[in-house]
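Collaborator request, handled under Task 6.
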Amino acid sequence: MESADPAVHPRPTGRPEAWHRLGAGGFLRDVVLGSSDGLVAVLAFVAGVSATLGARRTILLAGLAEMFAGSASMGLGAFLGSKSEREFYQRELAREKAEIVEMPDEEREEIRQIYQKKGFSGGELEMVVDRITENKDRWLRVMMHEELGFAQRTQTSPIRSGIAMAVAYIVGAAVPILPYVFLEGPAAFGLSIAVTLGVLFAVGAVKAQLTQRAWWRAGLEMSVAGGLGTLVCYLIAKGIARL
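C-alpha cells returned to the collaborator:
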C-alpha cells in the first residue's frame, strides 16, 4: 500500500479541495461563467434594443435570438477548450511517462531538485526521492503536478463542460428577458434591470466559493459590472438612434 506521506499525497484540508477531487470545481466554474455571461450579455443587449425599439414583441424576439446564439457559442467554446486541454494533458502525460522509462536518472534528478527547493536536504531529501521514484505511477503523478502543474482530477468531460456552459447561459439569459413576457415599456425594462442585478449578486456570491473571497464583495462586483455594462450599451444605442 502507498504511504499517506503529505510530501507525496497532500491531504485535502477543506471543502474546495473536495470539489476539485470530484471534478465538481470545473463543472461549477462552467455554470457560474455561463450564467453570469448570459445575465450580463443579454441584459446589455436588451438595454440596447429597448433604447431604440419600443415594441415588446421585437425586444422579446431579439432577446431570444441572442440567448440561443450566445448559448451555442459559449457551449461550443467550452467544449473545444476543454477538449484541447485534455488532449494537451494526455500528450504531456505520454511524454513524461516515456522520459521516466528512457532517462530515469535525469528524471530522478528533477525530483531531487524539486524537493530541494521545498527545503529538503541530505538524507531526508534522498528518502523522499527514493519514496517517490520507487513507484512509477506515483513518480509520474508527482512529475505531472510538480514539474508541469497539471492536476488530472480537476479535468472535466468536454461534452459535460459544453452542455453545462450552454444550459447555464440560457438560464442566465432568460432572466432579463422574462419581464418582457408580462410587461412592456419602462416597467419591463426597470424590472429586467432590478431582477438581473439581484441574480448577478447571487451568482457572484456563489463564485466566491471558487475564489475564496468575501461573498458580499464578489456579489457586489458582479452587480456593479452588470450595471455598468447595461448603462454603456443603453447610452451607445441611444446615441446611435439619434444619428
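The cover message to the collaborator said: "The chain has one domain: 19-238. The first helix runs from residue 15 to 21. Please let us know whether this matches your experimental observations."
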